[in-house]
């Protein structure tokens, strides 16, 4: 059944938004419609999108905590094998982001939110099997890989929400949506250690009612938008755009860093500074690891909001500068075995990876709004690019843990990996400047943004 939400005439009551139905007319750029009807509907969909995406991130990265808690006597894995358990879900999550993005444009945001929430039951069940049956390592690795289903949720959620909000409000809306999802990592790293103190199996069981609740909430409180319906041919047109791949590369530097550091921080902290302070709640041991993803999650909407004000390219460039300083700080801290400097450097990395996530995602709609022939095409191509960039960027969440593991294997420490990360941020800074900050490029390629950079 379909619901038509048309912009109301002056003095008319706003058309009610029927829950669980397709909305056939949606025009958030019309200020009258937005004020009377659109804003309320968009906010409701955003709230329940955040809830489902939050759970997706929690399940996606759950092995980063479980790996640290696995008893060596029952799970005699090497350091490299443990890094594989936290890295492989990130790779699978990256691969899942493209089909998840396109699922929204075929099935609708509400419908796909329900389905993608229920798909989280697969990795939850896999975790329960892994820690109770204790199958061979290769089976545990495959079960851990299914956590990547949670990674796809982010791309579909961001694509869906991008259609609900007007261009001038997308930075803040996408930032809030992303932050609500990203903070799922921190929530998981804070509460799962408490729960698994009673047994590793509870690290999976605790998510069952929440996942089912997310699917039910999507059914009752979210909407499908007809405007999201896009033929595959129109969606794939974005792969021909240079900006799609430039922004995908920059997203490796921002989101790839955030995801990679979130996955390895608990294990790296334990390996480099086993004396780091911990808190005890009954039999549970809580480390400082949860603070990193929390910082990055909170700064993500700040990056989107600031980009709305001063331009995404400027914010992104600043983030890469500060992430380079953070990488240098980690190298120095490890060499001096200085825990306060180590924690401060990682806090810098998390903070500006998070802000950079918001700024790069804000750049994408701005670029396509300037380059596309009409607003409908711009929305469709930018939505597809959000998914592609999200997939490529999330691959960085696989590369970073593997680079750190290789660094450990070759040198016994992490300094070599972070030297390469410093170089990566320098390259990302140059690409940002070359493609989006030089005035000659702005005037020639994105003329409408010449005075207010992307």
Give a quick precis of the structure.
With 454 residues, the chain is mostly helical. The chain has helices at residues 31-60, 63-69, 79-107, 109-119, 121-133, 137-145, 149-164, 170-196, 202-205, 208-221, 232-236, 242-272, 291-310, 312-336, 339-371, 375-411, 415-437, 439-445; strands at 2-3, 22-23, 224-225, 279-281, 284-286. Residues 6-20 and 442-453 have low confidence and may be disordered.
Could you explain the architecture of this structure?
The protein is an all-alpha fold and 454 residues long. The protein has one domain (2-449): MFS general substrate transporter like domains (Growth Hormone, Chain: A). The protein is 75% helix and 3% strand. The chain has helices spanning 31-60, 63-69, 79-107, 109-119, 121-133, 137-145, 149-164, 170-196, 202-205, 208-221, 232-236, 242-272, 291-310, 312-336, 339-371, 375-411, 415-437, 439-445; strands spanning 2-3, 22-23, 224-225, 279-281, 284-286. The strands form two sheets. It has a three-stranded parallel β-sheet. Strands 4-5 form a two-stranded antiparallel sheet. Helix 4 (109-119) packs antiparallel against helix 10 and helix 8 runs antiparallel to helix 13 (291-310). It is globular, with a radius of gyration of 22 Å.
């Amino acid at each position: 059944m379909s619901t038509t939400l048309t912009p109301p005439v002056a003095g008319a009551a706003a058309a009610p938004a029927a829950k669980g139905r397709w909305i056939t007319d949606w025009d958030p750029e019309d200020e009258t419609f937005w004020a009377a009807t659109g804003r309320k509907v968009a906010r409701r969909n955003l709230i329940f999108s955040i809830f489902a995406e939050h759970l997706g991130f929690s399940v996606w990265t759950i092995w980063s905590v479980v790996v640290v808690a696995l008893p060596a006597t029952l799970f005699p894995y090497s350091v490299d094998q443990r890094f594989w358990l936290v890295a492989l879900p990130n790779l699978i999550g990256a691969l899942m982001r493209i089909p998840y993005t396109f699922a929204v444009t075929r099935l609708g945001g509400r419908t796909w939110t329900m389905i993608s929430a229920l798909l989280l039951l697969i990795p939850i069940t896999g975790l329960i099997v892994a820690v109770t049956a204790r199958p061979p390592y290769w089976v545990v690795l495959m079960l851990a890989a299914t956590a990547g289903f949670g990674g796809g949720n982010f791309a579909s959620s961001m694509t869906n929400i991008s259609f609900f909000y007007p261009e001038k409000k997308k930075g803040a809306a996408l930032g809030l949506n992303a932050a609500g999802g990203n903070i799922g990592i921190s929530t998981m790293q804070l509460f799962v250690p408490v729960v698994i103190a009673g047994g590793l199996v509870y690290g999976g069981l605790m998510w069952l009612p929440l996942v089912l609740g997310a699917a039910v909430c999507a059914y009752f409180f979210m909407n499908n938008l007809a405007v999201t319906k896009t033929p595959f041919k129109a969606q794939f047109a974005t792969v021909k755009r240079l900006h799609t791949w430039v922004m995908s590369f920059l997203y490796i530097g921002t989101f790839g860093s955030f995801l990679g550091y979130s996955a390895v921080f608990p294990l790296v902290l334990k390996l480099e500074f086993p004396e780091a302070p911990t808190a005890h709640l009954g039999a549970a041991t809580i480390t400082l690891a949860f603070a990193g993803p929390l910082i990055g999650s909170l700064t993500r909407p700040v990056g989107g909001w600031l980009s709305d004000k001063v331009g995404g390219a400027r914010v992104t460039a600043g983030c890469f500068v500060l992430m380079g300083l953070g990488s240098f700080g980690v190298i120095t801290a490890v060499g001096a075995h200085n825990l306060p400097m180590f924690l401060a450097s990682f806090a810098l990395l998390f903070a500006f990876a998070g802000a950079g996530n918001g700024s790069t995602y804000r750049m994408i709609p701005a670029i396509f709004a300037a380059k596309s022939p009409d607003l409908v095409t711009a929305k469709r191509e930018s939505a597809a690019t959000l998914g592609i960039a999200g997939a490529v960027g999330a691959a960085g969440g696989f590369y970073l843990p593997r680079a750190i593991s290789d660094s450990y294997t070759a040198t016994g420490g992490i300094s070599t990996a972070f030297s390469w990360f410093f170089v990566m941020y320098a390259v990302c800074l140059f690409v940002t400047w070359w493609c989006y900050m030089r005035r000659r490029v702005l005037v020639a390629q994105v003329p409408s943004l010449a005075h207010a950079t992307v």
